[in-house]
């Protein structure tokens, strides 16, 4: 791990090189492994990968080399995994451990099921992140000495890469902020504790710039706040949807202007940290006459739940979801009820376009020791089903995943789940929910072996995709049903922390032509059209899936120019 140059050394010109210069790109094979993990249960299947990886997975990001960057915080004392080569982190400002020879970040390889320690120097507690178009993870903010630091991790083939830090790069402290990748490859960083502004990475000039966002001022509830980690989604018109507490706006970040304010979500209860729900932008379908974005917000905790939990009373979490069609002239929230109330639940887009709601609790709120009754059963939300058939309950995990747990989608369609530490320090005994250092996966029902005959296998695909341009893809399938149940989808992997998966999005691409292979009865070629604009899908690395009759292939990596 190293410290980068002075803040001025990360000029806009330097970052443009990182974004654009082809010599910086590291390409990996598109098709890495087509081995499909099995899920023979109709309600999915859990599998423990590692009982102890040394750290609790507070933050996770899947990289385009099929490795996952995982990190916790640094200010609680030693972790359970040592730094290699006798290295130690020396931090005179750390209140817990000024010389720390343990790691607080790891790199997990999903192909080999192995991991190695990474080294962070400053505190990453409750930070945020996004991936640049060249595949570099930009991670921002944190606590104490890390609150205005930018960190970068770039994958490498020889497994010697590590974090590089740029102290004092951010204009304001960003603790509990949200990051969103933009159509031009920049990252917008919004909010943070007692920060009511946004800024950009890279900076437009060596001088620091921030822009006030009144929504964050107006939605803060005293010391409880209830508007941290605001939900931010990039929309097809290039504006941002921003949700904080109970309110949401359509925001033009270029002009620092609120284009539109939407109705408050019904019920009057907050949905952001610490009354932590979650949110996704539902799949954008380029096959429709117009791409009409819809946002889904689920779960959270009732107003006042945080104060009651501090007094030892843990109230029932919110059981409703709100769905908003943003382009409707009179847009209004359509409310639905989950089968299980949930606070601190993660929401992930699956290759099928369904949403999995996983982790969290049924009582209390986010915060130290403030959650109870773990919600161990994931719930599937099927957005295309009739309104009374959208939820289904999955197989429970044997491990509670409460505050500071995380989940991400993996290349093969499994969900990686880790973390859970509702304590100030690591605490493994005499507590309701011990610190959890394990990693496990949940295999949704579509991975069941009973679907092997209709599961597509991608044989080849172009490594790079250009907006609006056709590209070729070939796949095989044992039992081909019909082109009407065939789709090609790209998914941007999320940066997940605190029950919010930043930057995740799915685009259903337009298929121009389906071509039978004359030499094989089980293989087919597709002519597919890339996303129509960078507003629909910003440049960068995406997982591409072929979905046939509701059953997805394993994903392959493509780079959107």
Helix/strand/pairing class, anyone? Answer: mainly beta
Task: Report, as a whole number of angstroms, the end-to-end distance.
Answer: 30 Å
Question: Could you tell me the radius of gyration in angstroms?
Answer: 22 Å
* Average pLDDT reading: 92
- In helices, the fraction of residues equals under 10%
- How many strands, what sense, and barrel or not for the largest sheet? 10 strands, mixed
Beta-strand share of residues:
35-45%
Number of beta strands? 45
Low-pLDDT ranges: 5-35
Shape: globular
| Continuous helix count | 3
InterPro entries: Glyoxal_oxidase_N, GO-like_E_set
Keywords: Signal
Pfam families: Glyoxal_oxid_N, GO-like_E_set
Protein name: Glyoxal oxidase-related protein
General description of the model:
- By secondary structure, the chain is mainly beta.
- It contains 3 helices and 45 strands.
- Strands 22, 35, 36, 37, 38, 41, 42, 43, 44 and 45 form a 10-stranded mixed beta sheet that branches. Strands 8-7-4-3-39-40 form a 6-stranded antiparallel beta sheet, with no helix packed on it. A 5-stranded mixed beta sheet has the order 1-12-11-10-9, with no helix packed on it.
- Strand 39 and strand 40 (about 500) form a beta hairpin.
- It is globular, with a radius of gyration of 22 Å.
- It starts with a strand and ends with a strand.
């Amino acid at each position: 791990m190293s410290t980068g140059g002075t803040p001025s050394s990360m000029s806009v010109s330097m970052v443009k090189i990182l974004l654009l210069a082809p010599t910086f790109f590291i390409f990996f094979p598109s098709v890495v492994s087509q081995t499909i993990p099995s899920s023979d249960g109709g309600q999915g299947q859990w599998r423990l990968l590692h009982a102890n990886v040394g750290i609790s997975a507070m933050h996770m990001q899947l990289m385009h080399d099929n490795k996952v960057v995982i990190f916790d915080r640094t200010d609680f004392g030693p972790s359970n995994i040592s730094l290699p080569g006798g290295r130690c982190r020396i931090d005179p400002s750390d209140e817990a451990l000024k010389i720390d020879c343990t790691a607080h970040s790891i790199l997990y390889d999903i192909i080999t099921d192995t991991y190695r320690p990474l080294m962070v120097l400053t505190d990453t507690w409750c930070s945020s992140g996004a991936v640049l178009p060249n595949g570099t993870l930009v991670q921002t903010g944190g606590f104490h000495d890390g609150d205005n630091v930018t960190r970068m991790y770039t994958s490498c083939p020889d497994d010697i890469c590590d974090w590089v830090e740029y102290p004092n790069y951010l204009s304001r402290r960003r603790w509990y902020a949200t990051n969103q990748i933009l159509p031009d490859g920049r990252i917008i960083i919004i909010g943070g504790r007692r920060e009511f502004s946004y800024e950009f990475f890279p900076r437009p000039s060596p001088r620091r710039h921030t822009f006030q966002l009144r929504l964050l001022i107006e939605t803060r509830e005293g010391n409880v706040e209830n508007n941290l980690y605001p939900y931010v989604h990039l929309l097809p018109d290039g504006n941002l949807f921003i949700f904080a507490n109970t309110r949401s706006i359509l925001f033009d970040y270029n002009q620092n202007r609120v284009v539109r304010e939407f109705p408050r979500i019904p019920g009057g209860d907050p949905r952001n940290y610490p009354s932590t729900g979650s949110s996704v932008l539902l799949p954008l379908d380029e096959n429709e006459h117009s791409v009409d974005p819809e946002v889904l917000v689920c779960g959270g905790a009732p107003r006042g739940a945080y104060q009651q939990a501090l007094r030892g009373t843990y109230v029932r979490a919110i059981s409703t979801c709100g769905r908003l069609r943003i382009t409707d002239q009179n847009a209004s929230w359509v409310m639905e009820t989950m089968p299980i109330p949930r606070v601190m639940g993660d929401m992930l887009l699956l290759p099928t376009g369904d949403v999995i709601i996983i982790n969290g609790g049924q009582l209390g709120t986010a915060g130290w020791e403030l959650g109870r009754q773990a919600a161990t059963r994931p719930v599937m939300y099927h957005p295309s089903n009739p309104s009374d058939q959208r939820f289904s309950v999955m197989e429970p995990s044997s491990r509670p995943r409460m505050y500071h747990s995380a989940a991400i989608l993996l290349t093969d369609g499994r969900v990686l789940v880790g973390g859970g530490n509702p304590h100030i320090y690591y605490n493994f005994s005499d507590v309701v929910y011990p610190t959890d250092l394990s990693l496990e996966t949940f295999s949704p029902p579509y991975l069941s072996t009973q679907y092997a005959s209709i599961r597509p296998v991608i044989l080849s695909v172009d490594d790079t995709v250009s907006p609006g341009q056709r590209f070729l893809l070939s796949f095989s399938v044992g039992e081909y049903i019909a082109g009407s149940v065939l789709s090609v989808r790209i998914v941007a992997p999320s940066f997940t922390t605190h029950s919010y998966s930043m930057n995740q999005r799915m685009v259903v691409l337009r298929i121009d032509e389906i071509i039978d292979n004359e030499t094989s009865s089980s293989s087919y070629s597709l002519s597919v059209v890339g996303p129509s604009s960078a507003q629909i899908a910003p440049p960068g690395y995406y997982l591409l899936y072929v979905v046939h009759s509701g059953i997805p292939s394993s994903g392959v990596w493509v780079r959107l120019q």
